[in-house]
Every structure is written in structure tokens, then in C-alpha cells.
Amino acid sequence: MSSRAEINAALAKLKKLAPAGYFIGLHIRFAAPLMQFQTYNKEWAQRYSERAYALRDPTIAWGFSTTGACRWSVLPIPDPFSILQDAADHGLHYGLVVAHGPIKSRTIAAFAHDKREFTDDEIDVISATLRRLHEITEPPESLTKAQQEALRCIAEGDRHAAAAAKLGITESAFKARLISARERLMARTTAEALQRAKDYRLL
Q1: Where is the HTH luxR-type domain (predicted)?
Q2: pLDDT of 49 higher than 90
Q3: What does the angle CA 167 – CA 145 – CA 172 come to, to the nearest 5 degrees?
Q4: Residue 81 and residue 110: Cα distance in Å, rounded?
Q5: Cα separation of 111 and 19, whole Å?
Q6: Sign of CA dihedral 45, 51, 54, 58
Q7: Would you kindly state where each structural domain of the chain is located, as residue ranges?
Q8: Partner of 35 for a Cys bridge, out of 26, 97, 158, 170, CB 3.0 to 4.6 A?
Q9: Is the dihedral of CA 92, 95, 101, 104 positive or negative?
Q10: Which residues contact 117 (CB under 8 A, 6 or more apart)?
């Protein structure tokens, strides 16, 4: 199974386990995740963003201070802005936060249920799945010279034919280098691959 297929399979599994939605921030560096996925309802997602809840969210504070999993109902972090109550008012009645990885590349995720607490078995499955997502989305430490050259050409605005001529290769060979770079960076598009290469400081 390819990394992309494995990511999609893991996300599908988590979606079934968290019927009220989830937010997953993978490899948080410099205060922002390198990859993120969320399935919360649109109203809550918009409210969370507009009110900048991420800056005050007790689940995120817990995730940066602790490794493991914790139900929202027993979270030992103050919630002076009543964010969890607001979440409940929007259908996220029960929840779970899971954190994994070193502090310099932390993965933090929140999962919600609308009817009941997550069971211990569900927490084990969710935690294991998140750890696997963290592993398979670990940013590469380097790109090949050919991959770097191809992405730099795109960054400089070259079209495929012009970039191929600049590098002294065929256009099909240039496209193959871009495909290779996208696969290594787990990006769907060349633009996404270029952005990730910059974010990972590989260019």
C-alpha cells in the first residue's frame, strides 16, 4: 500500500470511530502542522477559526504538555473560555485528545462523539492509528538533486518544456522528476510539493 493510500485508509477508519468529527495536526512545527485533516461540521469549524480558539484550546495545551490520550471530560487543564462547552453546544458532546511525537515535531488530534464517551478499546485503536499516521507522514530529510532541480525550475516560473531544456533533459524526464518529488513529499500536486519542500527547508 502506498503512503497516500495508507493515509486515506487511516483517515477513513478514524472518521468511523469519531462520528462527530476530528481535527488532526501532524508534525506541528513553528506553531503550525505540516499536514492537517478535519471533519468537524462546517459551523463548528468556522466558529473555532473565527474565535481563534486554537490559541486557548485546553486540548491543544494538554497535547503539547503530555503524550498519550485523554477524554475531554477528565482533561486536567483549565478551560476559562468554555471552549469545550461551546463544542458540546455544537454537537461535540464527548471528546478525546491524543498527542504523539517529540515536541519539535508534535502530532495532536482531537476526536468527537455525539452520543457517548469513547471506550478504552476505541481509544487504543485511535491512538495506534494516529501514531501510524505520524510515522508515515514524517517529512523526508532530503530530496535528490534531480528532485530539487525540478522543483526549483517550477519555483522560478519555468514551464515544463523550458525547464527540461534548462536541465538538458527531455520533457518526459522532467515530468518524471516532478512525479518523484510529489511522491517523496506525499503531495497531490506539484504546487503542494513545492510548498512542502519549502516548509521542510529542503530547497
Answers
A1: 140-197
A2: yes
A3: 45
A4: 18
A5: 9
A6: negative
A7: 3-136, 145-199
A8: 26
A9: positive
A10: 71, 73, 94
Pick the CATH number of 145-199 from 1.20.1510, 1.10.10, 3.30.1300, 3.30.70: 1.10.10
State pLDDT tens for residues 102-123. Answer: 999 999 999 999 999 999 999 9
Residue with cell 468527537: 112
Q: Return the pLDDT at 1.
A: 55
Q: Is the pLDDT of residue 191 over 70?
A: yes
- Hey, what CATH class is 3-136 in? alpha beta
Q: Give the model's pLDDT for residue 144.
A: 94
pLDDT score of 2 more than 80: no
Identify each DSSP E strand in the chain by its residue range: 22-29, 32-38, 68-71, 94-100, 106-113
Q: Which three cell numbers stand for residue 39?
A: 471533519
Which pLDDT score, from 0 to 100, does residue 153 have? 95
C-alpha separations of 40 from 58, 85, 190, 201 in Å? 18, 16, 28, 31
| The three grid cell numbers given for residue 59, joined into one nine-digit string | 486540548
